[in-house]
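JOB MANIFEST
job_type = single_chain_structure
chain_count = 1
residues = 126
[input]
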Amino acid sequence: MSGADIAGLIAAGVFAVLVALLAVPIIKLGRVFDELRASIRTLADGATPLMDEVTSTVTTTHEQLKKVDGIAANVSDATANVSALSSLVAATVGSPLVKVASFTYGVRTAWAQRGSTARPSGRRSR
């Protein structure tokens, strides 16, 4: 064997050792990628039902909010109707009732003064 052959064998041996040393981190990196892929698959499998439940909950909540909006609109209409009714009653009954009260007060005052002329007119304390 010549010196070139021995140098070639040494270079081949060093290269084989270098490949073996680099193969260990590459194999470990491959295992890390396998674990990462399994973790992502587990996460995706768990997230899909969760997203379905969230979608269902949001849909149900939206339907309930539509019902609440309808109820709020009906309450608003009822409040407006009661306000209009109270204004109507105040306008219809209030003014004549004040007039009747004033008239009866005047009649009572006149009747009280007619019965006793000695009493002073106006308000008296009780």
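[summary]
Helices lie at 3-115.
The CA atoms of residues 52 and 58 lie 10 Å apart.
exit_status = 0
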